Amino acid sequence: MAVCAHVSTVRSLYKRILVLHRFLPIELRALGDQYVKDEFRRHKSAGPKEVKSFMTEWENYKNTLQTQVLESAGERYNSVKFGDHLSQKKLNDFQDEQISQLYELMVESTKSKRQFDIQEDRK
């Protein structure tokens, strides 16, 4: 029964994050969606300690993004800043692989020319 509850909690968090990404600028949404999907897939077989940390950090991300989305209601995308600063303590706790991923995300999210031409569907 506990496994079912855990799976439900993970799915709920995953879906909520993807819903919140709908409020991001289209290029950040595409980047964020892919990153979330990859990370959740990568941690499917993680141990209990790693899962606890993983869920805590993604829950914090969801809460931060949800607050920023609500605060940005009615604002223009280019005047809204999404994201948060990482403390030196958090950075020190990262593994080398996580630092590399963070760097790649920073580079990709700050590119002036996007690799793909992503357009929203117009209805």
Automatic annotation (TrEMBL):
<keyword id="KW-0496">Mitochondrion</keyword>
<keyword id="KW-0143">Chaperone</keyword>
<dbReference type="GO" id="GO:0006105">
    <property type="term" value="P:succinate metabolic process"/>
</dbReference>
<protein>
    <recommendedName>
        <fullName>Succinate dehydrogenase assembly factor 3</fullName>
    </recommendedName>
</protein>
<dbReference type="GO" id="GO:0034553">
    <property type="term" value="P:mitochondrial respiratory chain complex II assembly"/>
</dbReference>
<dbReference type="Pfam" id="PF13233">
    <property type="entry name" value="Complex1_LYR_2"/>
</dbReference>
<dbReference type="GO" id="GO:0005759">
    <property type="term" value="C:mitochondrial matrix"/>
</dbReference>
<dbReference type="GO" id="GO:0005758">
    <property type="term" value="C:mitochondrial intermembrane space"/>
</dbReference>
<comment type="subunit">
    <text>Interacts with the iron-sulfur protein subunit within the SDH catalytic dimer.</text>
</comment>
<keyword id="KW-0809">Transit peptide</keyword>
<comment type="similarity">
    <text>Belongs to the complex I LYR family. SDHAF3 subfamily.</text>
</comment>
<dbReference type="InterPro" id="IPR008381">
    <property type="entry name" value="SDHAF3/Sdh7"/>
</dbReference>
<comment type="function">
    <text>Plays an essential role in the assembly of succinate dehydrogenase (SDH), an enzyme complex (also referred to as respiratory complex II) that is a component of both the tricarboxylic acid (TCA) cycle and the mitochondrial electron transport chain, and which couples the oxidation of succinate to fumarate with the reduction of ubiquinone (coenzyme Q) to ubiquinol. Promotes maturation of the iron-sulfur protein subunit of the SDH catalytic dimer, protecting it from the deleterious effects of oxidants. May act together with SDHAF1.</text>
</comment>
